[in-house]
Design a protein that fits this description.
The complex is a heterodimer of chains A (487) and B (472). With 487 residues, chain A is α/β, with parallel strands linked by helices. Chain A is built from 16 helices and 19 strands. In chain A, helix 7 links the parallel strand 9 and strand 10. Chain A starts with a strand and ends with a helix. Chain B has 472 residues and is an alpha+beta fold. Chain B has 3 domains: 31 residues, no CATH class; 186 residues, v583 domain like (v583 fold), CATH 3.90.1700.10; 214 residues, Enterococcus faecalis V583 fold (Alpha-Beta Complex). The chains are: A alpha/beta (487), B alpha+beta (472). Chains A and B meet through helix 1, helix 4, strand 4, helix 5 and helix 6 of A and strand 1, helix 1, strand 2, helix 2 and helix 13 of B. Strand 4 of chain A pairs parallel with strand 1 of chain B.
Amino acid sequence: MTTHVELRPGAYADSVTLLQVSRTVQQLPGVDSAQVAMATPLNLEVLAEMGFDLPESTPNDMVVAIRLSDQNALAAALAGVDEALASKGKRSDGSTDLAPPRTTAAALRDAPGALVLVSVPGASAFVEAMDALDAGADVMIFSDNVPLEQELVLKQTAAERGLLVMGPDCGTAVVGGLGLGFANATAPGPVGLVAASGTGCQQLLALLDHAGVGVASALGVGGRDLSAAIGGLSTREALRRLDADPAVELIVVVSKPPADDVAAAIRDHASSLRTPMQFALLGAGQPDLTQAAEETLAGLGKPPVEWPSWGVPAEHAAGALLRGLFVGGTLCDEAMLIASAELGPVHSNIPLSPELAVDAALDAETHLMIDFGDDALTQGRAHPMIDPTLRLEHLAKVAADPRTGVLLLDVVLGHGAEPDPSARLAPAIRAIRETRDLPVLVACIGTSSDPQGLARQASALAEAGAEVHLSNAAAARRAVALIGGTR
Amino acid sequence: MSSPSRVVNVGADMFADAIADQATEVQRVDWRPPMVGTEADLATVAGDPLRRDANAEALKAMFAVQALLVDVAPASEVLDLKPGEFLHAGPPIAWADASGPMRGALMGAASLEGLVEDPEDAAALFESGAGVSLDPCHHHQTVGPMAGVVSPSMWMFVLEDPASGRRTYCSLNEGLGKVLRYGAYGPEVLERLRWMTAVLGPLLQTAVRQSGPVDATGILTQMLQMGDEAHNRNRAGTLMLLRDLSPAMVTSELASSDIADSLRFVGGNDHFFLNVAMPACKLALDAARGIDGSTMVVAMARNGTEFGIQTAGTGDTWFTGPAQVADGLFLGDYGPEDANPDIGDSAITETAGIGGFAMATAPAIVRLVGGSVSDALATTRRMHEITLGENPRWSVPVLDFRGVPSGIDVTRVCRTGILPQINTGMAGRVAGVGQVGAGLVTPPAEIFPEALAALASATRSRLTVELGLSDR
């Protein structure tokens, strides 16, 4: 066994790209493991855990770390690294040989009127977003880990200038039909969404699409927008934009229950709009997202529809505890609300109340639901909608735990998400089902026009033995019923 | 809402791919992490409510200046320089820390002023400090190329901004080779300086006073379209100045042989206009000083030991680091080991957006500084990444008349790691040698995070709400 570690000062690629490079290199013959990453403290920790000895470095260095089972394979492995890194920039849209701009400000000089999409690491997102506002551009901030104070400054600045800040931590937006971040492909239609939740927005897009109702725009505002600290600054601007759009007949605001005075202020603001507005609030005692979609359909005068499912319904729980493993935070939240109402306390890394929090081991003696898209689990690695590795590892562990009675998962399709999630998840489910008669419930959030294809993904998961629902609430209710929903 | 006609994507490439897949134009930013340890300061400064308007104001003030050559006069008169007082290039420096060429120029100037007979004796004088003092040109509205040494008897160009009445100054250019500003102090150097004081200065004074102010900013506009970048190539500018002044020179009452010598001297010195371009740049940049919240660089200067910058938002503070050795071509048998670290106030041209920043407009000299024409185009484009705007007057024909990249932004330097590109001459490291080459140089990287930290600290002291810095 030989190891090779080298630093490449000045080399840079984003974490998603490096993940793909690492995976490509790992698959080369003679390579036991490989990690190509920026030398951030977190990545250095991962590399140290993998057993690599690391020289002094700065976060601006790229680390190439390879462990070889065949020491003669080093040259080929390094060539593989270079090739994989070189191919990352192949998809350029420019026809010229000009160097690409290095800052958002420089890019906007040549692209006035553009919308800016920011997904750089959280510590640098504010600076790029401020470039957009300085140039009079709307901005969507996908990045998480942006301090609240910075969010407030951005949104106050945008409000002064009549600009829209979507985010931070805004996973999904559809702007006049263009999907940004993780967005589902839907037809244009009469609904305008304002969403403080990415996956909550995606659930509505998916359900409305199934009901044949399109969406004019879905404007993300970030999970903290309706907090008392931010006061709904982006929500107001989003409402103003949607109200001005003649295509929009009904506005739906998707959010956790806002602070009382913020909710009152937004309702007050909404009463001045010509377009009717509904709240779809995610919280105890509130309708779930599926019921919100049904209310939206009713608000448009559409008949109710049946939400689809795939696969053979499971019959028995295989143990006492419900285990939910999610990539969508709002989907996790929704499932916890449904489950805890029937089953009692659900522990989580994003708990409904603080005493239900779990530590880094992500385990509990009660029902448990984990959001793998939470900030703490995405620092230094790609979101689980892009890279399912972390959840798959945990899935195998949880499935082998005899306490686990029912597994509840989500799969989120759309632009930006994994190109074929069932390719890795279906075999994992099949392997579980071959070992134990453990029910696996899956909420598959997507539309027929999504690049991954809703029917294809849902069928593949169903064939592997899962019971698949388009509605996350329906999947959660089925899971609760199997565990035996009696307090 | 209509869908955006295009999207600027900064961050994960896959999001850009997803947008391109929806048949929408994407501009991809080649984002990389900022200089190490600058994230918090960058965020603080980006959140400074004064920043955007302060930078716009700084840029506007710089562009509004029209620099007129209004007079030529001795430093003793216009700068009130007394015997024993010497100005020098760059940030403040003591004799003990001065490099070879800086010492050589000071020794020559001491001899020129009659403080010592033999320049070699001046070393002891400066070491003792008795009756001599050193001060940066920049602290006296003055700029000096290379060693930049100014002594009372030297004649100065006087530039004035008619709107404000502010003035800046620069000595007369001696030519290339063995000259004082490169640290040479032999008899021929001193003889030339004495002639400039006795003949050239008074003649130019007569000519400027008689023909009226010469529009230096206007000449710069034209020369940038004639292949000069106004730092290492000033050929067109020199000839235009000569064109404007020669009628009055010829009709002056001085001896015709002195006039002929002067015309020959100026016409034969391609760098003569540099000493007009530099104070014109300083005049423009000084208009941007003292603007709270502005992150614009208003001076870059080197004393042969240290490279220093000043910014609009941090008053008179110099942020300094070790001066680098230029990379370029050498005269004769000289090589890199003969070259002194970077020296001179002439980087004021780059600070104002010309010189290395306007390299694209001077393809004729790309070989002098060891580059190719495509390097030159790329350099000017790259400098747009770290500047606040484009000069509406000074444009580059080959780049579709795009204005030169103007107003170096400390934050963008820290964000991109791109350092200002400076065209420069190289002085020999041993006093008395003179010029050994020419080439390209950049400032030491660390002075930009230093300046940023000072800007951030100024922002913090103005703001009650700190931006995500509660842990500091």
